[in-house]
Design a protein that fits this description.
two-stranded antiparallel sheet; 4 helices
């Protein structure tokens, strides 16, 4: 099989396409969560703690100098706090989705399947042998 044909077979399998769709939807969901955190959740939290914007929190290691056009060197831990909150929201949303899927699949698994004919026959033979061994 040629390299191109092998790649085509790989790329057109169902699970690869499903994964690609999941990545695209996940990226869009990430943007929605980023906007939710930055524009809806963080402003009230900042207001509640005194009008502070977390994204402005930073530890300046070296201040910038406009005269020499050197950039500021800073550890922006406020942005990190925003990203942590976004992660918690995304993790919670994924938890809810997985929980819903597990609830749906649990109902399908709860129905006991009838044992195959050979298992039923072996069980019957075992029970008959037990009865023979009990009777003197």
């Amino acid at each position: 099989m040629s390299f191109i044909a092998e790649f085509k077979k790989f790329a057109l399998r169902g699970n690869v396409i499903d994964l690609a769709v999941g990545v695209v939807i996940g990226a869009a969901f990430g943007k929605i969560v980023t906007s939710l955190v930055d524009n809806i959740i963080m402003p009230p939290i900042g207001y509640a703690i005194g009008g502070i914007d977390f994204s402005d929190w930073k530890w300046v290691l070296k201040p910038g100098d406009p005269a020499t056009k050197t950039a500021e060197v800073a550890v922006q831990y406020g942005v990190f706090i925003n990203v942590l909150i976004q992660f918690v929201i995304i993790a919670f949303a994924i938890f809810l989705v997985v929980k819903a899927i597990n609830r749906l699949t649990r109902h399908e698994e709860a129905k006991p399947a009838a044992p195959p004919a050979d298992v039923a026959l072996l069980t019957e033979i075992r029970d008959l042998l037990k009865q023979q061994n009990r009777t003197p």
